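Supplementary notes for students who missed Thursday's class. We covered one full example, reproduced here. Read the sequence, then the structure, then the short commentary at the end.
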Amino acid sequence: MMTPRTVLTVGHSAHSLDSFIALLAQHQVSAIADVRSTPFSRFTPQFNRESVKQELARHKVGYAFLGRELGARSNDPNCYEDGRVQYARLAATKSFHEGIERLRTGADRDRIALMCTEKDPLDCHRTLLVARALHEEGVNVEHIHADGHLETHEDAMLRLLDKFGLLQANMFRTNDDL
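Structure (token representation):
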């Protein structure tokens, strides 16, 4: 029986490069898939595309930019409605499917972490869009938090439901069941 592939996610947030590299080392990450649409920040320049790529290479961690395929800001105008990206439309694009397949294939040889900006995985498309698609294809997904603990994708989705008051023990019960 084959072990399911595992893909991690991580937000660089306002970490120093040293603390970010330590998080990756703690979880044996060997490659980063950068899923930011625009891999630049004036607030955290240490995570600008070339800077982080060079630093990761110094620590023997691979880097691939997948923001065109898996970023939340598509160049495809069909992915928008009233100026807002529609994740379902984005997830249906050929480019998105190619990005997901690239991750699935890469996870056979590397321990990959999807990298985006947001600290909390629930605040980011890496969880709500990309991890969801991977999970639906049978890939095990775990989210690295800023303090280093891991959260399964299933637990993250339960936390999301709870955050919006949708996690109720009797959510699927009818009046006849009471």
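Commentary. Strands lie at 6-11, 31-34, 62-65, 80-81, 84-85, 112-116, 140-144, 150-152. DSSP finds seven helices and eight strands in the chain. If anything here is unclear, bring it to office hours.
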